[in-house]
Amino acid sequence: MRAEELKGHLDAMLLAALEGGPRHGYAVIEALRAGTGGRLDLPTGTIYPALRRLENAGLIAGSWSVVTGRRRRYYRLTPAGQRALAGRRADWRDFAATVSAVLEGGPCPDPA
Amino acid sequence: MRAEELKGHLDAMLLAALEGGPRHGYAVIEALRAGTGGRLDLPTGTIYPALRRLENAGLIAGSWSVVTGRRRRYYRLTPAGQRALAGRRADWRDFAATVSAVLEGGPCPDPA
DNA sequence: AGCCTATACGTAGGGACGCTACTTATAGGT
DNA sequence: ACCTATAAGTAGCGTCCCTACGTATAGGCT
After folding, report:
1. Domain limits of chain B?
2. Which of residues 34-73 of B touch A (CB under 8 A)?
3. Which of A81, A108, B11, B85 suits a disulfide with A59, CB 3.0-4.6 Å?
4. Using a CB-CB distance cutoff of 8 angstroms, which residues of chain B are in contact with residue A13?
5. Whole-number Å distance, CA B8 to C1' C13?
6. Fold of B3-91
7. How far is residue A53's CA from residue A25's CA, in Å, rounded to a whole number?
8. Contact A94, B17 (CB under 8 A)
9. What is the pLDDT of residues A68-103, one digit of tens each?
10. Which of A9, A13, A23 is the best substitution to test chain B (most B C-beta atoms within 10 A)?
11. 3-class SS at A34?
12. Eight-class DSSP state of A9
């Protein structure tokens, strides 16, 4: 997975990863890795700033808790986040259809 | 189409737009617009630098010509560009499958 | 003649974003 | 004592697409 490909689609996947219930950052990484058969293995330097960004945007809400001595920050989707997720899903479908039309569609005939 | 979504996928679409034969920049814009039903309407400030980038990378080759008094730069795929296009197509399929698995797949069950 | 639009190419600068590399800290196994 | 897994975070970097602008010709309209 090339890095540039991901740009603009990470937020949608993070929101989707939180759709099934609150998760902390490390668990999000593992959920995405497991959910994609290992194809998506994001570094912490990608995840943690992205979660902060989503939190600042009001799409997710975080809270600290301590489990077996380790501090964890659990994030849950806010109502705005659920709406954003629905929008991002629609965006993705539209985007995927557009790119597929160009890449998978036959070569554009020369209009000349 | 949000801007960030496109990142990393433009090159593949430009290569695909040139697969049917040489085209100049302005014609590439129109071909992509027509091929996607107007969903992809890229500004010239996106296309021209991108074509330069692909040319510098050796994936396309450009040559000037003059048609009805207007100068045009026609680009054609190089053999390396054809190989790159095949690779990018495979990348796209893999990427699309990965994102779809996360967004369209059911919510990841809580392992707890 | 004067003006506007379409055609056609280009650059400069900026904003957004994900990654690399590094730091801090606890739990548990060898 | 050491190493790995778990868990969170930051600083700085590089890439990339877009906005805004500049240049020029062809052709239609008034």
Report:
1. 3-91
2. 34-37, 39-40
3. A81
4. 99, 102-103
5. 21
6. Arc Repressor Mutant, subunit A (1.10.10)
7. 13
8. no
9. 889 999 999 999 999 999 999 999 999 999 999 999
10. A9
11. helix
12. T
10-residue block means of pLDDT along chain B (112 residues)? 90 96 96 94 96 95 92 96 96 96 70 38
Hey, which residues does A76 pair with through a beta bridge?
Answer: A61
Q: Does the CB of B48 sit below 7 A from strand C? A: yes
Residue A13, Cα to own-chain centre: how many angstroms? 2
Asked whether residue A40 carries a pLDDT value surpassing 60, the answer given is yes
Q: Nearest by CB to B1, from A13, A34, A95: name it.
A: A95
Minimal Cβ distance to A89: which of B31, B96, B103:
B103
Q: Say whether A96 and B96 touch across the interface (CB within 8 A).
A: yes
First and final C-alpha spacing in chain A: 38
Q: Work out the minimum CA distance from B75 to partner chain A, whole angstroms.
A: 13
Strand B60-67 relative to strand A70-77: parallel, antiparallel, unpaired? unpaired
Q: If you search the block for the tokens 């603009």, which residue do you land on? A: A8
Closest chain B residue by Cα to residue A111 = B31
Dihedral sign, Cα of residue A58, residue A60, residue A61, residue A63 = negative
User: Which CATH number does A3-97 carry?
Assistant: 1.10.10.10
Taking one residue from A and the other from B, the number of pairs with CB-CB distance under 8 angstroms is 121
CA-CA-CA-CA dihedral for B99, B103, A10, B36, to nearest 10: 60
